[in-house]
Amino acid sequence: MKLFTKVCWLLLGALFIFSGLIKLNDPVGTALKLEEYFEVFAVDFGRFFLIFKDYARTISIFLSSLEVVLGVALLLRWMLRQTMWVLLGLLIFFAFLTFYSAAFNKVTDCGCFGDFIKLTPWQSFGKDMLLLGMWLVVFLNYRYLRYSFAKGQLGVVYITLAWAVAIGIGVRALGHLPYFDFLPYKVGNDIGKLMKPLEQARYQYVMERNGETKIFDQYPTDSTWKYKSMEVLNPETSKPVITDFEVSDVEGNSFTKELLTGNKLVLIVQNTNKTDRERFKAINALLEEATKSRRKIQSVTITSTSPAKFDTFRHDVNLATPYYFADATVLKSMIRSNPGLMVLQDGKVLAKYHYHDIPALFNVEKLF
């Protein structure tokens, strides 16, 4: 039991640190998931929860940093009993969220490990039950973990440092782009290719005859066999990774093929209400310079804002590029910045820039 307790202690601390760091890698994505929960709770429990939407990013960094700090405190065995009780509160909170999502089909992805590992609601709930089980093992066997690796002031220094590092990681990612991009539109990916399946779907057919059940790779021509069920053998590779990428003009005509052809400098304005307007002077200068480049770079803007509202906005900020429209969720997946810049060559993502990191034209030209 001593060894098992120590394994549970080690895994519990490491998983909390890992989970927190994954979320801090992309605090905007975590905040979007929190907003989704707040919207669901507002419908089911009262509009009071909508108040928290404006603070989703702050809550995102705090909760993610708390996971890291609790994991560090647990591994150091610093104030172990108090740490365990706080861990229990957080685990119960997460278990409620995942059970609620799974039982009532409210949020299809809890975001427990960001976009790095996708879990279904029931898988997420099972993961939380496993963590609660490990917590119980550690809680019932304190006697095997009496020695603390950080006592007194040294422990306070370590925990303070953990808080500072965790928050620093989150704030840095919030003001720029995620350190690691796990989304389909990451640098190096070819959007056009990801919109097509890697291979054709392969099926197996379950047929029945006179009480006998048999599996066929091809649909049998013998009519005495009766169809029972069918299963796709390669569900992951027979479905496109990107299924919802569609860009159109103000009249609804598709611009997707044109966008994925040639050299493009794409400005993405997800929501004009929340975009940083102060950055448009520098952005406009870059977009204008790009159109004069020998690299034949076409500057375009994509937004999810309504045509009438965006037309007013572009005049306010003197934005002179052609503009097109796409789904808001797609744009948030494309880049965690509002506004943000993407460089495409025949649909391949060459670079992405946060509005705090607007590049010089020669840096864009070097990419082609």
In short:
This protein has 368 residues and is of the alpha/beta class. It is built from twelve helices and eight strands.
Tell me the number of strands: 8
Largest sheet: 5 strands, mixed
Helix content: 40-55%
* Global shape: globular
Tally of domains? 3
| Chain-averaged pLDDT | 89
Count of helical stretches: 12
Structural class: alpha/beta
Give the spatial strand order of the biggest sheet: 6-5-4-7-8
State the end-to-end distance.
60 Å
Tell me the radius of gyration. 25 Å
Low-confidence stretches: none
Give a description of the structure:
- Helix content is about 45%, strand content about 15%.
- It has about 375 residues and is an alpha/beta fold.
- It folds into three domains: about 1-175, no CATH class; about 195-240, no CATH class; about 255-365, Glutaredoxin (3-Layer(aba) Sandwich), CATH 3.40.30.
- Strands 6-5-4-7-8 form a five-stranded mixed sheet, sandwiched between helices. Strands 2-1-3 form a three-stranded antiparallel sheet, with no helix packed on it.
- Strand 4 (about 265-270), helix 9 (about 280-290) and strand 5 form a beta-alpha-beta unit.
- It is globular and about 70 Å long.
- The mean pLDDT is about 90.
- Keywords: Membrane, Transmembrane, Transmembrane helix.
